[in-house]
Amino acid sequence: MSTPSKNPFLEDVLKDHATLFQPGQGEILQMGGSKITLKVTSAISNDQLGVYEIELAPGRIGARLHYHRFMDETFIVTEGVLTVQHGDTEVEAPAGSVIYLPRLTPHAFANRSSARAVTTLIFNPAQKREGFFYGLQQILAADPINPEDYLTLYNKYDSYPVDTAKMLPV
After folding, report:
1. Which residues, 6+ apart, have CB-to-CB distance to 66 below 8 Å?
2. Relative to the CA of 91, which of 17, 24, 43, 107 has its CA 20 to 30 Å away?
3. CB 84 within 8 A of CB 93
4. Is 149 helix (H, G, I), strand (E, B) or coil?
């Protein structure tokens, strides 16, 4: 008499895959008056979630009015005041604010204050968003900025400017 084999699909296999990022940890990309710290990347989350810390110097534009077709975006303001436009509405979001922007919602963000603004930016799914940030760092370092390269990068990473004549964050 044989004993039935155990079906591995009926059990959960528990394993600790946690990743902790202490304050200041993560890969840091400098872009003029902005700093992006990569936290939970596509590689860590199996492309399900991207978590990034964005620091904008006073007067800096994060992104002009654009939208995403295949990902949602969430801002969690952790320091200062972030100006966020969604559709025709513009809000001043102080520290502690959470702004959820589902796909196909036109949005823009900037720091119009006299102090730095810091936000945790979440993309779901991640759509390999780090590639966008690496490309953006190179494009914004060019003088002058090449609008065609900028638009190509935008479109490759599921970003679509509402007005291509006013898409550059300068």
Report:
1. 106, 107, 108, 154, 159, 160, 161, 162, 167
2. 24
3. yes
4. helix
Taking the model in full, what pTM does it have?
0.91
Read off the pLDDT of residues 5-45 as tens digits, 9 standing for 90 and up: 788 888 898 999 999 999 999 999 999 889 999 999 999 99
Mean per-residue pLDDT, 114-128: 97
Q: How far is it, in rounded angstroms, from Cα 20 to Cα 134?
A: 22
Closest to 107 (Cα-Cα) out of 125, 128, 84: 84
Tokens matching residue 164: 């291509």
- Architecture of the domain spanning 27-160: Sandwich (2.60)
